[in-house]
Amino acid sequence: MSFINQEEIALVKGKLTSDVSKLGKLYKLKNSPFEKRSVDHQTAKNLIKQGWEIEKTLATKTIVRRQKDYAIRFIDDVWCQLYNLGYRTMNFDEAFKIPYGSQEGEQSPIDIIAIDKETVFLIACRSSGLPQKAPSFEDIFDSLSQRIDGYRKVITQIFGKGLKVKFIFATRNLRVESESSEFERFFKTGSFYYNDNTYSYINSLIKSYKGVAHYQFLGLIFKHELINSNKIEIPCVEGDMGGKKYYMFSIEPSLLLKMGFVLHRTKANEAEFPTYQRLLVPQRLAGITKYIDNGGYFPNSIILNFSQKRHKISFEPSNRTTSSNSRFGILKIPNAYSIAYIIDGQHRLYGYANSKYKDTNTIPAVAFNDLSSSEQLEIFMDINQNQKAVSPSLRLDLEEDLFWDSDRADSRLKALRSSIIKGISVSADGALFNKISIGEDASALPFKPFYNALSKSELLPSAKGNKYEGNLAGSLYDITNENHDQEMRRAKKSIVSFINLCYNFVQDNYPEIFNKNQYFIVSPRGTFAFIGVISSLNTFISERTALSYNTTPRERFEALEKYLTALLEYIRVIPKDEEERQLTLLGSGADIRWLRFFQLIINKRFSEYEPLELVDWKERQDEDLQDTGRKYGIAIEKHMKKVVLSKIKLMYKENWELEINAIKRDCQDRAEKENEKNYKEGIKKHQSVWTEMFNINDYKTIIDKYWVKLPEDEADHPGFITFQDEFSIDIGQGLHGKSDCLRWISLFNSYRNLWAHEGTKETRLNREEVKFLERINQHFEPSYQVSYF
What we know:
Strand content: 15-25%
């Protein structure tokens, strides 16, 4: 019995097209951020007054354009995604409606319809120009189950039986409560919710998988749904390994491509966490396809895990040999989307997708049955740590899943840091919602600066093994709670809320700072500096007040709000020359310099806030202090050279050079290199000699070797002072042996690197280090004074 009449069928078909040329032109228009019109010159003038702009002027026409409205742009973007996924029957009319009943008025608007030989997607879109809380979707969700049933009947009547129909609700810039009763009714209809994360993920699939992205796309949309009711029966061998049953078999790539699914590390797959896979490398994929089509093959197996959330595989044994515990049989696999998770071998499998051999070749596979995501992750890591390295950013992301249940405190803290960052990124009420790159989801801010900032912050304790270290005054983690999982979850919730409050404060009150890309807050260096100063302020306030790990995030934020205000008010009116100087800082230490810059701004407004690291930094910027330390250092080094060389000459007379010949050769090599360098740079006035090229370690080697040596003609040199007597200096640890006596030289050498490099202001001398140099110099030359202290 017909559900709708022929006139209605014609109306539906009349707003669809399968014309490849027409679709291509339509794609070009929809893929542009502008809507365009070709009009006469007078009409163009009127349109310009309404906000249009001229793109091109022709003899009789003017082509004008304007930015598409955000709602139209979103619909066009999703339409283009479906086109890029290979759909070639689509609506070209924006006023598309589809009946869901036979009565008059029983039809509803659909923004996009996309059809291929197997599937039909009906998509309704809602969006906002800027991120905001979503309104009610009652108009879409009301009686949705009945409408979807009607859609299926209409699709069957128009296009025939066998097509899988899926209703998709797509949103952009709308923060929704996906666990609300409204969405609960939506999900019960079997429909798919397509949000910002889904859109970004599908774009990534199209970029990485090119023409084969539709396999992963279908697995995402129809996850665990049957492709058809016919089970796939494959001869296989069942075995047991590590207490897990596994199956070895060969399968056509075309079958596995439809059943397979890759757990990419992306927020679109967050329901499957822990996830672990990287996206494909497009160039590598094309190369594999070419290799296969030229007769190449891969003898190693694809590693799979059969998910049995909705459909069960079964094994029917035929017999078992007497010489092995493995057995032959038939593996029966439900023909369902996403039933086979690809743990290893996605490049090899997807390399077959565009190959002429995808239906005729068979590829070896080893399949496990119903492994947890954590177990799949372990296999993935075991395989990849010995093959292509997991990227550092993905590794940091994976730490939550790798170490959450570790028996080591330091490993659990790694997991907690990773989890906090992801919590900040997925908090719909936070200013950084979807702004942090997580796994395969690229975004405005990289993952690592957040990780580095949390690692150095005191919001969490530090640990070695199971021993906690560092200042715990500002820690939001209770180290006395032995229920680690409970405490980690509590601390994560508290820290995520606290950091979100700080970023929300910037976004709400200083949007001109927050919304500026690569500026002081929303940038990699800004991330490190802002979280660092939040942590520093939290520790400062915690040490002065009654804040503890039980303090609410709101109370904690309110305690430091005035300090953040001081920072942001200064940045708002920062002088141009200082702004440029800070923004152009280069090198790995730029993030630390920004943190000190932030701390210094607050310190100038609130002098009581002066953390030790800021005091240290300010001292290292003191030019008078650096000059004093440099003078002490030069005096010490001159004394060492004078005393060491005079004593070695006195002890060995004309043979003194032969006695230290190994050191002499090194010094000669340095002198030759120095002279070569000077020559190439046009400096020809001075020729270095080897006796000018001693370094501190050379002096230490001589002092150590001839520690108590006396001249052979000792009687001619009464009162000779040995190296031991000359260079033994107690630096506060006692003199219990030669190594204690000489420890000061190693320390002096490290400080020498600070005062000798005048170009850097980060690795210079602080007050305590200069006092050390003063003390060493006083040991050698009590009368030598430099006026500073």
